[in-house]
Amino acid sequence: MKHLVKGLVAGLSLTVAVACGSGNNAGENTDSTSTTSADTSSFDVSANWKIGTQMWTFNHFTLAQALDKADSAGVKNVECYWGQPLGADMKGEFGINMTDDAKAKLKQLLQSKGIQVVAMGVIAPADQAEWVKAFQLAKDFGLSYITSEPKKDQWNMIDSLAGSYGIKVAIHEHAKPNPYWHPDSVLAAINGHPNIGACADLGHWARSGLDPVECLKKLDGHVYGVHLKDIKTFGEEHAEDTIVGKGVIKFDPIFDELKRQQFRGMISIEHESNWLNNLPDVIETVKFYNDQVTRLK
């Protein structure tokens, strides 16, 4: 996601060990001593996974229009971002400054389409007061988690707030040089903070030259959400997006690993390409996801 909110982790310096694996085949498991666990063959992915759409995919449109597109793709779970104009008969933008009237109308629209806002982000609130407003908004819409790239000195505070509100914080892993580009930096934030986990961005890991499967293994038990995307070139910070399954990322081992971990949550399509006509791309990605679910049953 390239719309990162103001005040993003300025000055945050974290040391990471480049140990997630690399190579020309993103997602290929090159570790012969792969993580093992109890048998998960009976784990029902269709019951525990949700296919969603990060609304940034449709950032050239209002939220009302974006919801229409998600609905057309058969997607009933979404991740909203701050700043998207609401549209329809709603004034303002999605975020902490929404009026009560706009919130009520948006809830009615969501209910009419049978769509649930599961998460929002990527956000980086400036201070505790703004974080409180973020959690209040999340509670108002029944969110499961907030996707964020918080400042290091906020870790204790947001973990406490997350516990109080019963809403997790998932740290988004944007491509380097972002402070959270490597899972080790996310694990540093998670350490001692039971309400902080990870938003696994598969495309950004590949852009950073990391093997998404090995990155998922590092974060085993801490993945709250996934950003599903594919790219055309491995190890390139600004690699162009493409339809999932048509790029360099190998997805079979990724979905296998998510099943092994018994991941429970939303897998959000975030397609940053073909902006004005990307609904067919999203529909194709939904089909790809459904094929993976069928394969894993």
Automatic annotation (TrEMBL):
GO terms for molecular function: isomerase activity. Gene3D superfamilies: Divalent-metal-dependent TIM barrel enzymes. It comes from Panacibacter microcysteis. Keywords: Isomerase, Signal. InterPro entries: IolE/XylAMocC-like, Xyl_isomerase-like_sf, Xyl_isomerase-like_TIM-brl. The keyword Transport does not apply. Residues 1-19 form the signal peptide. Residues 67-287 form the Xylose isomerase-like TIM barrel domain. The keyword Ligase does not apply. This is Sugar phosphate isomerase/epimerase. It holds the Pfam family AP_endonuc_2.
